[in-house]
Amino acid sequence: MLARTSTRASTARARARSSRSSNAGARAPGERAARRHRARTRASNDPAATTATARERARCYGCGVGVQTRSNDVAGYVDVATYERKATHGQWDMMLCARCAKLSNGAYVNAVEGQGGVKASPGLITPKELRDQLKPIREKKALVVKVVDATDFHGSFLKKVRDVVGGNPIVLVVTKIDLLGNAVDHDALERWVAKEAETRRLTLAGIALVSSRRGSGMREAVLQMMRERNGRDVYVIGAANVGKSSFIRAAMEELRSAGNYFAPTKRLPVASAMPGTTLGVIPLKAFEGKGVLFDTPGVFLHHRLNSLLSAEDLSEMKLGSSLKKFVPPTPECAEPPGFASFKGYSLYWGSFVRVDVLECPPNVTFGFFGPKSTRVSLMKTADVPETISGQEEAALRLVQEIDFLPPMHVDGPLVDLSVSGLGGWIRVEKTSGRGDGPIRAHIYGIRGLEVFARDVMPTA
Ligand SMILES: Nc1nc2c(ncn2[C@@H]2O[C@H](COP(=O)(O)OP(=O)(O)OP(=O)(O)O)[C@@H](O)[C@H]2O)c(=O)[nH]1
Ligand SMILES: [Mg+2]
């Protein structure tokens, strides 16, 4: 009986072996090499070789922060049982912290001091600590992929990028293109992006317009990255929440579909709508041969709305949805009566931006391109309530002024007022060539917010 069982078992083992080997035979040679490479990497994580340093170095693969088993309220928390199980098998690079698990399920869990005004408390990481992790980049020879959010180009651009990356070549990836709608002229947009980079005297090794969510433009972006890196490491950098980790996830998919089986598909950096998702530099062995791809923590820019709002507000507002266009109808003019114009009116965008229109010909409109959740309302400037004393924090502050004479006898968009970190802008547009006159407006915003007056972005 015993003999028969063992014969059956050995036959089953032999069958399993043969099916494994025939599966392996069906794999592309590149994939076999990649598997061997991963096996070697795992072997180097042999528990026998476990040292205190390996424990110390254990990082959450989702956010890159050091793992800890002490506090569930702090980033990097892994429960003791899971930690011990993974540690026994030397799986130091296979731990996902509790915060990342929640973020992956759509929760908004903050880990950064100052986000939405959050005060310092134990376990919160400061924006400076995040930024300091980028310091080694400028000392190395590397390719930099700088990611910018298409819906917040000016707010997310990182003006002083050369301070961070030194003289390293930069490929500029403009992501979230899908949020601009389907009617975007890509060539015109690319020219606009190139001009904006030129204005900032930033020489680029390439420009790619992508949607990590839809995968569009990813092939070209990955080709540019591979072409420019020349065996060097690649650092993906950018402001917080612009879409760096999502870009990396989409790039891994693209690399694999192009036959690069070295690109990992599991245990990738976590992407979420909460700014400050990535907290440490995350290395990914994505290329055959030399070179590592690094995800990095986002740079916190205090003038961006998504840094000024709390996790609760962000969750409620659901920023990052497709841009909706809303053009309020032109009201009857406050002064002189009987005319239709925005002159003398104030346009509120949610509770964080207000445009007071001081001068405006009748044929000028204000188009709001932004998340659906952000309502636009109108009132006469004369009726705007005075700041109630004691509510100084809630008061809006003057952040931008526009004062110009549009070209005569032409119609079309004139200027975009881009609200930093909102993912959207206000487009001032002349709807007919007739009726000219100056446009003067004061733009108010919540404390810290910046509004950029920029050349019109070529979107519908
Ligand atoms: N529609 C759309 N959303 C995107 C795209 N790329 C990223 N997002 C969303 O943008 C948010 C931020 O994405 P992440 O990849 O986490 O951004 P990040 O730059 O890594 O953020 P930090 O790690 O916090 O600095 C998430 O909600 C993503 O789903 C895109 O191409 N299209
Ligand atoms: Mg990230």
TrEMBL record:
Region (Disordered): 1-51
Gene3D superfamilies the record matches: P-loop containing nucleotide triphosphate hydrolases (3.40.50.300)
Organism superkingdom: Eukaryota
Keyword tags: Hydrolase
InterPro entries reported for this sequence: GTP-bd, NOA1, P-loop_NTPase
Ranges of Low complexity composition bias in the record: 1-28
Signal peptide positions (record): none
Keyword DNA damage: no
Pfam families for this protein: MMR_HSR1 (PF01926)
GO molecular function: GTP binding; GTPase activity
SUPFAM superfamilies recorded: P-loop containing nucleoside triphosphate hydrolases
G domain ranges (all copies): 234-302
Name the UniProt record assigns to this protein: P-loop containing nucleoside triphosphate hydrolase
Native source organism of the sequence: Ostreococcus tauri
